[in-house]
Amino acid sequence: MTIAVRPASVFEDVAAVIGPKSPTANVCFCLSYRIGSKLNNELRGPARAEYVAGLCRADPPPGVLAYDGDEPAGWAAVAPRADTSFARNRKIPHVDDLPVWSLWCIRVRPGHRKQGISHALIEGAVEFARQHGAPAIEAYPLDNGDARVDLTMAYAGLRKNFERAGFTHAADTTSVLAGHPRVLMRLDLR
């Protein structure tokens, strides 16, 4: 198995990983932290997909995809924090005024899990942010210790995976997801 991580510029591949099963669904596509809640609630069914297709055509695209051969196997959302709701989030602090990038969602498709794809996605997101001039990248993973995490809520990532990628604990947060506290992890790219 050879995993390649590339910018998420092919909408069909993004949809295969994070799109809803039904084209009329009003969920996912990893938009809740990327856009304001009003727009997030307004985008319904096909309009949601059209919005994400536009993001895939943008420069930079909305994140990175991991491929197992030609098959999209995973996704990581990464963008300048200023372009996300983390810029205004009251539960996740800003540790300084550096124009950091945020990495907030990691998704690996069923059938591809337990193969190191989440690690490849973190590394790929870091490289993507670096190539686009990010001075640092932040993530807001669960600090779950050895406790199991519901896969539905594991999208934020796990602290130990970010530590393994060289991120360090930068701050505690008051955000809790699936019963686990989230921490702010950061990697300096300068």
Short summary:
The chain contains 5 helices and 7 strands. It has 190 residues and is an alpha+beta fold. The mean pLDDT is 94.
What does it look like?
The chain is of the alpha+beta class and 190 residues long. It is built from five helices and seven strands; from the N terminus they run βαααβββαβαββ. The protein has a seven-stranded mixed beta sheet with strand order 1-2-3-4-5-7-6, sandwiched between helices. Helix 1 packs across helix 3. The mean pLDDT is 94.
Tag the structure with descriptive keywords.
globular, alpha+beta, 190 residues, 7 strands
**Helix count, DSSP H or I runs of 4 or more residues:** 5
Average pLDDT, rounded to a whole number, is 94
State the helical fraction: 10-25%
Spatially, the strands of the biggest sheet line up as: 1-2-3-4-5-7-6
Main sheet, how many strands, which sense, barrel?
A: 7 strands, mixed
Dominant shape? globular
Q: What Rg, in angstroms, do the CA atoms define?
A: 16 Å
Content-based structural category: alpha+beta
Which strand-content bin applies to the residues? 25-35%
* H/E element sequence: EHHHEEEHEHEE
Distance between the termini: 32 Å
Q: How many beta-strand runs?
A: 7
> Regions with pLDDT < 50 over 5+ consecutive residues?
none
